[in-house]
Design a protein that fits this description.
mainly alpha, 2 domains, single chain, 140 residues
């Protein structure tokens, strides 16, 4: 049932996409279909549906099923407050990239320090065999 509903909504969205492209034009012009980011999102969803439904033997399109989660964002076009929140979320990604890079550097720094400090601390833990015998200089 879910596959048939997915196919029905895919066809409806494809017809909507085709009508918008016919009405606005595709890419050349001022207010054409692909000038709006919301329409680009719609077009990517429709393109993934079409490629998945064709199922060419040379292409592995199973990964495109992940784009189905973007379908609910089509509703955000018609609700102004939700559209504003999604736009703010997308615009805030640029500011978050610096924070993510700083955190990656921070985690890498502390993971290197942890490996250095705890490299020989596992010698005297629970063992099945005999513990290592330290030499005169204190190393095992």
């Amino acid at each position: 049932m879910l596959n048939s509903l997915s196919s029905i909504f895919g066809v409806i969205f494809s017809i909507e996409c085709a009508l918008k492209i016919y009405a606005f034009g595709f890419i050349n012009g001022y207010k054409t279909y692909l000038r709006s980011w919301w329409n680009v999102l719609d077009f990517v969803i429709i393109l993934s549906f079409i490629l998945e439904s064709i199922q060419l033997s040379t292409l592995n399109v199973r990964g495109l099923r992940a784009l189905r989660i973007l379908r609910p964002l089509k509703v955000a076009q018609f609700i102004p407050s939700l559209k504003k929140q999604v736009n703010v979320l997308i615009k805030s990604i640029n500011g978050l990239i610096n924070v993510v890079l700083f955190l990656l550097f921070f985690f890498a720094l502390f993971s290197i320090a942890g490996v250095h400090f705890f490299s020989n601390s596992m010698n005297y833990t629970c063992r099945v065999g005999k513990p290592p015998v330290p030499t005169a200089d204190g190393k095992c």
